[in-house]
Amino acid sequence: MNYHIIPVTAFAQNCSVIWCETTREAALVDPGGDAANIRQTLEQLKLKPAQILLTHGHLDHVGAAAELAAFYQVPVIGPQKLDAFLFEALPTQSRMFGLDECDPFTPDRWLEEGDSVQVGLVTLEIRHCPGHTPGHIVFFDRVGRLLISGDVIFNGGVGRTDFPQGNHHHLIEAIKTKLLPLGDDVEFIPGHGPTSTLGRERISNPFLQ
CA 65 to CA 77: how far, in whole Å? Predict the structure, then answer.
């Protein structure tokens, strides 16, 4: 699977375009804002997304999802349904974070632990990793050894848990029981900042020692 990262919003959130090298079918992950910039990048890559995938319901990850879904006429898929309250509170999140007003919306499909999503010939496995938000999920390409981790784990850090319904214990437990066992060689794209590998973070991430 190929990927291209588009930093969006004042929070430099990593919106990812992912696509199957064989079929050129693409998906857009966590389009948090700057819809025009995302569309322009997709045009440059000569890709049209077949779906929009969301790791969790925070505004900087979902802010442009409804607009782009309408533009491309594609479904919005994920996260897990425990994040429904965040989608209902998007106008409040807009005011809280000082970003453009975002109307409430409901994804076309919620995802659960054990589900999978197909992008061309690439299968993305779903892991439910609560803590940053209760319904946070990650997308894992087992064959390509690539993980899209949202705001669960970062290069040198982990997700904040001081937002509504955050839980630090649940976050660390999810990282240690669901992500690190995937393998040290797995590269991950975090929600913010540079990529890393699970092996590097297992050894050096101060939150995991």
Answer: 10
DSSP labels for 93-119? HHHHHTPPP------SB---TT-EEEE
Strands (E), the chain: 2-8, 13-19, 26-29, 49-53, 76-77, 116-119, 122-128, 137-141, 146-150, 153-154, 157-158, 187-190, 196-197
Tell me what the mean pLDDT of segment 143-166 comes to. Answer: 97
Please write the tens of the pLDDT for every residue from 91-117.
999 888 877 789 999 999 999 999 999
Mean pLDDT across the chain: 97
CATH code of 189's domain: 3.60.15.10
CA distances from 194 to 6, 69, 207 (A): 12, 27, 17
Backbone angles phi, psi at 180, to 5 degrees: -55, -35
**Range of the structural domain that residue 175 is part of:** 2-208
- Look at the chain and report how many structural domains it folds into: 1
CA 52/CA 172 separation, integer angstroms: 27
CA 8 to chain centre: 13
